[in-house]
Specification:
The chain is an alpha/beta fold. The protein has one domain: FAD/NAD(P)-binding domain (3-Layer(bba) Sandwich). It has a 7-stranded mixed β-sheet, sandwiched between helices. Strands 7-2-1-11-18-17 form a 6-stranded mixed β-sheet. It has a 3-stranded antiparallel β-sheet with strand order 8-9-10, with no helix packed on it. The radius of gyration is 21 Å and the shape is globular.
Length: 391
């Protein structure tokens, strides 16, 4: 297969995973990003087994497992700390042949960047437009420069500037109805057991603590708070602690401890948006992937995993097409549109149920959790994992 010149726009999880997969398939890959410094958005990412399988195939599996949290159990409780359900995740991980790896976003991005090679990544280069024809693609940058390539990979995130050009249609972001505060905190048993994913739910709100560090000497939790709020509320780091004290007054003692311990300067406050499932993910000589292609609510923990799958599949279809870019893009589209669209829709439905879009449905979910033995929750996660390109 002839090596292609491939230009990746975006040095996030999706762009770097795609770059690495394409490099390993023998292509010449350059990555550009408009930012001058890579600063991951959000404290951590829950890389479920389907994402870890992709990273393992790319040679990063052992490194990822070494620095990720050892999550063995899941537990739900009411806002007052009353138990709803608790179960081991071992049956799930055994069934799919791979544990999940919650990991600091900065750590994962460092591993990917090192694997791709910093010499192949250019920062501070804002791509504003591109043209394509049957022969190739030319990308234009705000500094007046341009680059040519055989294929353009658009991985510039949920606020993508190039997505509409690829698709030939407008794409609107949709507010999912809630705000998420997320942060890393030192892990301790008075917050949660160090190998547990604990969640407190009530009043359409949620608090989560997940182990995310493989450093036994300095374990950390990835923590987040979800609150349904109207769009456009003020984000003021000096108010984060007071805001959360107000929203979670009377909640269980571990929640109160968590609110007093986090560092507001290290916290992200995000209004959660998604986009409607897209009918296609490619244009002439161009493909979109990651959040640019399927921005989704984080309620299934699949945003990053789907970006990793995108990159893996794109590399494989190019191999199979033996240099026929148009055929490869058609195969990528067929492999990914239904898969990611279904997960976007499921994540939206889960977000609505968790955050009270229909209060009766949320009450019913709370009641289901009280009867849950883990089989239904793990069955849904297993279905998602097995639907990926690596099974």
């Amino acid at each position: 297969m002839a090596a292609l010149n491939i230009l990746v726009i975006g040095a996030g999880m999706g762009g770097l995973t795609a770059a690495l997969a394409l490099q390993q398939a023998g292509h010449r890959v350059s990555v550009v990003d408009r930012v001058h410094e890579l600063r991951p958005v959000g404290a951590a990412i829950s890389v479920w087994s389907n994402g870890v399988k992709v990273l393992s195939r790319l040679g990063l599996g052992e490194a990822v497992e070494r620095v990720s949290g050892d999550m063995r159990h899941m537990r739900y409780a009411t806002q007052y700390g009353e138990p709803l359900t608790e179960f081991s995740l071992a049956p799930l991980f055994e069934a799919v042949g791979q544990r999940a790896c919650p990991i600091a976003r900065a750590e994962l991005q460092r591993l990917l960047l090192d694997a791709v090679g910093e010499r192949h990544v250019r920062l501070g280069a804002a791509c504003s437009d591109f043209d394509s024809d049957e022969e190739g693609v030319t990308a234009y940058f705000e500094d007046g420069s341009r680059r040519t390539a055989d294929l353009l990979v658009v991985a510039d995130g949920t606020h993508s500037r190039l997505r509409e050009k690829v698709l030939g249609q407008a794409v609107a972001r949709r507010y999912c109805g809630y705000v998420n505060w997320n942060v890393r905190v030192p892990a301790s048993e008075d917050l949660a057991p160090l190998d547990h994913w604990d969640q407190y739910v009530g009043d359409h709100q949620r608090v989560s603590l997940m182990p995310m560090s493989g450093d036994a000497a300095n374990p950390e939790f990835y923590c987040f708070f979800d609150v349904p709020l109207p769009p456009g509320t003020i984000s003021d780091p000096t108010r984060y602690r007071d805001e959360l004290r107000e929203h979670f007054a009377g909640w269980a003692e571990p929640v109160q401890r968590l609110i007093e311990r986090f560092d507001p300067a290290q916290m992200a406050r995000v209004e959660i948006h998604d986009i409607e499932p897209l009918s296609h993910l490619v244009g002439q000589r161009a493909a979109i992937l990651g959040d640019a292609a399927h921005g989704m609510a984080p309620d299934l923990g699949q945003g990053g995993c789907q970006a990793m799958e995108d990159g893996w599949v794109l590399a494989r279809v190019l191999e199979n097409a033996e240099g026929d870019v148009a055929a490869a893009l058609k195969a990528y589209d067929e492999a990914r549109v239904e898969r990611v669209g279904e997960i976007v829709s499921r994540a939206r439905k889960r977000a609505e149920t968790t955050h009270g879009a229909d209060p009766a449905a949320t009450r019913a979910w709370y009641a289901e959790l009280a009867e849950e033995d883990g089989s239904s929750i793990m069955g849904g996660i297993e279905k998602t994992i097995r639907g990926g390109p690596l099974g």
